[in-house]
Design brief:
This protein is an alpha+beta fold. The chain has one domain: tt1808, chain A. Helix content is 26%, strand content 28%. The protein has a 6-stranded mixed β-sheet. The chain has a two-stranded antiparallel sheet with strand order 1-2. Strands 3-4 form a two-stranded antiparallel sheet. The chain is globular. The termini are far apart.
């Protein structure tokens, strides 16, 4: 049963375990369990949705073209990281080796690659407790995209901590998805290029 905690003599609230949260979670219900607290997902802005749609399509087509395999999921798979942390990443990729360990209802371990897009209501969680949980549980690469300010940041796990990379330059090349790279200019939701054109440039190099 849920654990009751309180911060004063009047109010109290429940902390769920990951298993209790997964029992509560059902198709169409989107939420994260962060430190035992449930945070439901809210509707996002069109900029947020458009940017994720673009990156999802581009990476999915690249994975198919390159025959890298694995599984790419878009905010539909619960990732159990610990006894009180279960997240539904905006985008995440599991390697072919990891796919064999996925369960019918959730992933019992961290994916290799995660991307989260910031919203005003969630930014503090994406770069706070979720950042450290991804770091602690072995996500190898974490992309944090800001569709409003375009201050995108990219992190790779080194010696158990996330280290930022690709702070400058025109291209961001993944360190865990071989050959996958995006031009910084593509990550503007108000001026998104055609996915097919981007895939061609990625495979042949910039013009």
């Amino acid at each position: 049963m849920p654990t009751l905690v309180s911060t004063d003599t009047i109010s109290e609230y429940q902390l769920l375990t990951s298993d209790e949260f997964l029992d509560w979670l059902e198709p169409g219900r989107h939420a994260d369990l962060i430190g035992g607290e449930t945070f439901r997902h809210s509707p996002v802005s069109l900029k947020h949705a458009d940017l994720l749609n673009f990156l999802d399509s581009l990476l999915r087509r690249y994975l198919e073209h390159s025959n890298l395999g694995g599984k790419l999921y878009r905010e539909v798979v619960a990732v159990k990281l610990s006894a009180r942390n279960v997240f539904e990443p905006d985008l995440c990729w599991f390697s072919p080796e990891q796919v064999r360990g996925l369960r019918p209802t959730h992933a019992p371990f961290a994916p290799l690659w995660v991307c989260e897009a910031l919203s005003p209501s969630t930014a503090d969680r994406e770069v706070g407790p979720k950042f450290t949980a991804y770091e602690d549980h072995g996500v190898k690469e974490y992309w944090v995209l800001d569709p409003h300010t375009l201050r995108h940041r990219f992190y790779a796990l080194e010696d158990e901590v996330f280290v930022e990379f690709a702070r400058e330059g025109d291209w961001i090349e993944s360190k865990v998805i071989p050959g996958f790279k995006v031009a910084r200019a593509w990550l503007n939701p108000e001026a998104l290029p055609l996915v097919g054109d981007c895939l061609g440039q990625m495979l042949t190099g910039p013009e």
